[in-house]
Amino acid sequence: RETVAVSQSGTVTDLKLAAQESLGRRFLRLAAPDGRIFDPVESLRLSGLQDGESLTAVAQQPKLAATRHAFALWCIGADRVVTWGTPERGGDSSRVQDQLKNVQQICSTAFAF
């Protein structure tokens, strides 16, 4: 059992990063006592989380998809997808990164995701 503290003016992501550092684990999702998974961009004030409340940190397994020229790494339901490789073949997702939230699955073809 670990204890982490963050400002109430922060976001769930701030709390998640503090938990990741405290636990020494990456790729975490935070769950409320009722099992609800917190949205990483949600403010702590609006999340319904109470001071001193216990949370569950759920470790996720990263997933990898590949084309002939690029790779994509993500966790199911996470707040980010990382891509690399030939930009014209799916290796650069920077223009759509803001749309890649809560990704459940990535399918690849020979030249694209």
Describe the 3D structure:
This protein is of the alpha+beta class and about 110 residues long. It is about 10% helix and about 20% strand. The longest helix has 12 residues.
Outline type: elongated
Low-confidence stretches: none
What is the strand arrangement across the widest sheet? 3-4-5
- Between the first and last Cα atoms, what is the distance in angstroms? 40 Å
- Cα Rg: 16 Å
Give the % helix: 10-25%
Return the string of H and E elements. HEEEEE
| Proportion of residues in β-strands | 15-25%
Number of strands: 5
Number of helices: 1
Mean pLDDT: 87
Quick synopsis:
The chain contains one helix and five strands, in the order αβββββ. It has one helix at residues 12-23; strands at residues 28-31, 56-59, 63-66, 70-74, 82-85. The chain starts with 11 loop residues before the first helix and ends in a 28-residue tail after the last strand.
Secondary-structure topology with pairs:
Elements: H1 12-23, E1 28-31, E2 56-59, E3 63-66, E4 70-74, E5 82-85
Antiparallel strand pairs: 1-2, 3-4, 4-5
